[in-house]
Amino acid sequence: MRFQKSLAALLSVASLATAIPAAEPQDQNKAGLRLIKTSEADPGVWVSEEDKISKYRAKNINFIDVTDIKDPETLRRLNKFDADTARVAAPVYPTTITHQTEANGLISRATTSGPQTWLRTLTDFYNRYYRSSYGTQSSTWLFNQVKSVASSNPAIVVTQFSHSYSQPSIIARIPGSSSKLVVVGAHFDSTGGSATARGPGADDNGSGVVVIMEALRVLASSRFAPRNTMEFHFYSGEEGGLLGSADIWRNYKAAGKTVQAFVNTDMAGYSPSGKISVYNDYADTSLTAYVRRIVSAYVGSSTSDTCGYGCSDHASAYSNGFPAAYVCDEPDRTSSPYIHSPNDSYNTVSFTTVLRHIKFTIAFLVEANYLA
Question: Is position 329 annotated as part of the catalytic site?
């Protein structure tokens, strides 16, 4: 998911902010409401779970659910995104790309056979809404599928990360000789515009999920032994305000984990331009430039855009002080017109586009493996 907020859409829900002020959080929590922010300046508004989807997400208004975020430093970043100066230590990213022989050997093993099958199953769920039984079922299926994909390398550990709702996120980990992390991720939940609507979520974000899965399959089957530990994240609850990724990155911050780089893939299957789009806002400036160099070296020129506040899961890592970047299939103005609706279906996805993102993801993992 990612969209710029429109003034008209924000005005259409402005009455919510005045009707339910951000004060009295204990009373609001008792009422089952959630506190969301739509911008740095927004003090927050208490809304129901259904309103988050039908009055915000369905109208393509970005927001972050901050109800459970208590860390003062993270909250400061959510109010003023100048985290490049406040982030935890990150490496100096190379200005040249030097591991193409190794990366291209792995890239040659990538196909769209698995991704086509996996995406068909993902879109066959009625929806993958994080509070629905379908959302739980899709998480269970994905957990088992990721374990199957990773099984060719017994060193890989696949775990579920539980949340306050019944759709666990999933993490696959390839241990390296260093505990420093290189992370790629994508959210797997979906919405069709309401909690009960059909939401196949093909481009948003089944396409990103199968990209990460195929990259994992290639590295697992080749018994790739990394220097930096590699993680493959599959987030739940993104459409509800970046919920799954917020929990995970909050946990990583509290645990003092060192993250060399995180690249978020959200939408990787619809691209009239035929280029990967590297987004520039709410992301680490140096890492974003490094990602753009990798795109150029392996799959050609890129496009760019900005996506606004809380547009996808990289914002969770970034607000917790970790270096994060975001790649997508297209700039906002030419992106899929079908997302967040029942029309975001399997037949709208281009697997040529999916393969382009798979190649980039494998290349990124190989190049970032050598970050010191």
Answer: no
